[in-house]
Amino acid sequence: MAILDKVFTAQGSPNIAFIKYWGKRDEKLILPYNSSVSLTLSAGVLRTKTSMVFSKRLKEDALFIDGQRMAMDDKEIRERLWILEKMRKMAGSGAKVLIVSRNDFPAASGLASSASGIATLVYAANSALGLQLSPKELSIIARQGSGSACRSMFGGLVVWRRGSKRDGSDSYAEQAFDERHWPELIDIIAVTSQKRKKVSSRAGMRQTVETNPLYKSRPAAAEARLRKTIRAYGKRDFGALAEQIMADSNEMHALMLSTRPSIRYLNPASFEIMDAVEALNLGKGRNVAAYTFDAGPNAQIITLRKHQKEVLSALAALRKEGKIIEIKISGAGSGPMRLEGESLIDEERLIPK
């Protein structure tokens, strides 16, 4: 049963997929054609903070993201927030809810803001509704709001199993290695654009699956790379890991490019970053860095702390020319957590602070 008039606040963080999910076998339940694996990033660098309160004093549901009130009848909002209604029914509550969420990184720009946002919302709702669901159950619910959100429910290296059942009960995320397994591994995030992408990930996936005959070979290839990626991460074999990360990113964006009409998330700066990383690796005679791009132009460069200065040096010219707007550096992070004593909501008046 919902715990009324008490604000629950949680924080979570996005993840970067090493082996990516692109394409659904079920649109409603968000069931992927292939399994995927990602690294959850540190909430100290990229963070979503969400406060939530259920109350009979509220006349309607309300959602505020980054200071802006969202239209609850908006198609994208409905698609993502139907999971909250599902959780409310599980708790047997009819109370309305106020949700206030803030990101410290741009939304809809390929930095997994939906993964972070939905994972944090589901985590907070579990407490606010008094459900006490297991991590696996929370992962399944988060998946139905945003596929990659199921991976942000855990820290470290996380695998999302594609599953095979029609009801999605065997499609969930689980931790492969915790955030302490490889502390030397870091993610250098090079922001090249803060603009919202023109084609949403959901629309792009649907378009690729429906129009691109090359997609048929993608799931099996991704599954094979996933196994190699988990093995390399477990052994802390950076060279082998980098090879799989770049190959998967390149294949996914090649599929997008050959979709009809073509989907182009990368911008000129994205390709220059790819060139810079490849030149660095060539000069060193081995892989010391690996670029990867989700559905957006912002690069995430995986490397080791001992090579951080070299990678930043390779990006220096692009940053000086203004092609890289901002650089953030993150290590592996944990999953969502409760923030005691913090709130984005004025509890007396039930409005955003």
How would you describe what is shown here?
The chain has 353 residues and is an alpha+beta fold. The protein folds into 2 domains: 8-179 and 339-352, Ribosomal Protein S5, domain 2 (2-Layer Sandwich), CATH 3.30.230; 185-330, Alpha-Beta Plaits (2-Layer Sandwich). The protein has 8 helices and 18 strands. The chain has helices at residues 75-91, 113-128, 135-143, 201-211, 218-235, 238-257, 268-284, 308-320; strands at 8-12, 15-19, 24-26, 31-32, 36-40, 48-55, 62-65, 68-69, 96-103, 157-160, 173-177, 185-191, 289-292, 299-304, 326-330, 337-338, 345-346, 351-352. The strands form 5 sheets. A 6-stranded mixed sheet has the order 8-7-9-6-1-16, with helices on one face. A hairpin with a 4-residue loop joins strand 17 and strand 18 (351-352). The mean pLDDT is 95.
